[in-house]
Design brief:
The protein is α/β, with parallel strands linked by helices. The chain folds into three domains: about 110 residues, Rossmann fold (3-Layer(aba) Sandwich), CATH 3.40.50.720; about 160 residues, Dihydrodipicolinate Reductase, domain 2, CATH 3.30.360; about 80 residues, Alpha-Beta Plaits (2-Layer Sandwich), CATH 3.30.70. It contains 13 helices and 15 strands. The model has no long low-confidence stretch (mean pLDDT about 95). The chain binds NADP nicotinamide-adenine-dinucleotide phosphate (NAP).
């Protein structure tokens, strides 16, 4: 028997599940690879000694999370000649370049499938399966907590606060959900995807993100009548010789492949002229699911080739993009309101695709969808509409994704 020694940094939800999975799958892995994985040491806050674990390992798995000491440990292990597998999106989205460079210099593998989309094989497909395709755009639902909350709001009509409380009760949201609901967690994952898909140096600081905290049950209810469903959507795309990476709530038409991705599932749609589009979906988190993706990376490292991204090419980030929008307005129910709104939209070159109007006693709700327009023009129109005297509350714009990929 040839042992393959795995040092485990972190023994929480994922680390604990990985330990059990390695024990359970060791025979099968040995039969496939000719090497038998075994845990050579475990580090937590109260047990193990880092340098000693590195010394006794062929590969180190980092499942501590956060920036430090995870970054320091990953660098140290690679410089000591050890392959590293991690599920840590924060450290990759912030310090990816430094880590990829260190892996390249040391001639070791750095694998991170579980950092994006849990067990959904996003990294592998972008980096290996589609290595020959020129990827134009990736859309992703890459945060299961927010997808669960939006799904529940849509299914039951409940408000955001109630749906969040339910997600926390059922273990789909953490006690402090801010990274998830603000869009920051999804932004980190989209930065990692963009770095791989476009070979552009993108860190989380360059991703514009908005969360779901201000979404109301009304937004979802009115949009249903327009045939739309709401997701927290990450987008990474090539535009005008540069790239744009962003995360925001967006409406999708029912025929978009991501429109039917519900609950805590993650999904990614990859678009390229060579392949039209590929959609991958599955559980985005969970101890045993994530551990399964981590162990897949460990096995790949036992039998190379490398998955390091190529050195980054200088690529500008595009500041303004075109998008269709949904706009919800609560207005006094009086003559001339729609005409004034339409005039402002028209002056900014915004053209309306569809409108629904509902009476709310003395007030009315106008919900509309407009054709794609530069975001800066649309937001200028929304700002002006927000000043109109008959507005009862701030206008609520949400982006609409128009692609549907029908054959
Ligand atoms: N949970 C998921 O579903 C999921 C999904 C995808 C990716 N991930 C990623 O997987 C990683 C691990 O997540 P998790 O949910 O397993 O976290 P967790 O349950 O909080 O476990 C973290 C582990 O790291 C240890 N640790 C924390 N600080 C340490 C330090 N300074 N030195 C040594 N050990 C330290 C903890 O030690 P103690 O036991 O002493 O507290 C614990 O064993 C994170 O990067 C996360 O983003 C998780």
């Amino acid at each position: 028997m040839t042992p393959f020694r795995v040092g485990l940094l972190g023994h929480g939800t994922v680390g604990g599940a990985l330990h059990e999975l390695i024990d359970a799958r060791a025979d099968a892995i040995e039969a496939t690879t000719g090497m038998r994985p075994e845990i050579s040491g475990v580090l937590t806050r109260s047990r193990g000694e880092f340098a000693d674990i590195v010394e006794r390992s062929d590969l180190v798995v980092e499942l501590i999370g956060g920036l430090e000491p995870a970054r320091e440990y990953i660098l140290h292990a690679m410089r000591a000649g050890r392959h590293v597998v991690t599920a840590n999106k924060q450290v990759l989205a912030e310090h990816g370049e430094e880590l990829y460079e260190a892996a390249r210099e040391a001639g070791v593998q750095l694998r991170f499938e579980a950092a994006v989309g849990g067990v959904v094989p996003v990294i592998r497909v972008i980096h290996e399966t589609l290595a020959a395709a020129h990827i134009d755009r990736v859309h992703g639902i890459v945060n299961g907590t927010t997808n669960f909350i939006l799904t529940e709001m849509t299914r039951t009509g409940m408000g955001y606060a109630e749906a969040l409380a339910q997600a926390q009760e059922l273990g789909f949201a953490e006690a402090d959900p801010s990274d998830d609901v603000s869009g920051r967690d999804a932004a980190a994952k989209m930065a990692i995807i963009a770095r791989l898909a476009f070979n552009a140096r993108v860190t989380i600081d360059e991703v514009a993100y908005e969360g779901i905290e201000r979404i109301t049950a009304d937004d979802i209810e009115y949009a249903k009548e327009l045939g739309l469903s709401l997701k927290l959507l990450g987008t990474a795309e090539r535009l005008d010789g540069g790239v744009s990476v962003r995360v925001h709530p967006a409406f999708l038409y029912g025929s978009h492949p991501l429109a039917a991705v519900n609950g805590s599932f993650n999904a990614v749609t990859i678009e390229s002229p060579a392949i039209t589009e590929i959609t991958l979906s599955g559980p985005g988190a969970g101890g045993s699911q994530t551990a399964s993706a981590v162990l897949g990376d460990v096995i790949s490292a036992m039998i190379p080739p490398t998955t390091l991204p190529a050195p980054a090419v200088e690529t500008p980030l595009v500041p303004d993009v075109r998008s269709a929008f949904y706009l919800s307005l609560e207005v006094a129910d009086e003559p001339g309101v729609l005409a004034q709104v339409a005039e402002i939209l028209g002056l900014q070159g915004v053209s309306v695709k569809s409108v629904v109007q509902k009476g709310l006693g003395e007030d009315a709700r106008l919900a509309m969808v407009v054709h794609p327009v530069l975001e800066s023009r649309f937001m200028a129109a929304v700002h002006l509409i927000g000043q109109l005297p008959f507005l009862r509350s701030a206008p609520r714009p949400i982006r609409v994704i128009e692609e549907t990929f029908e054959e």
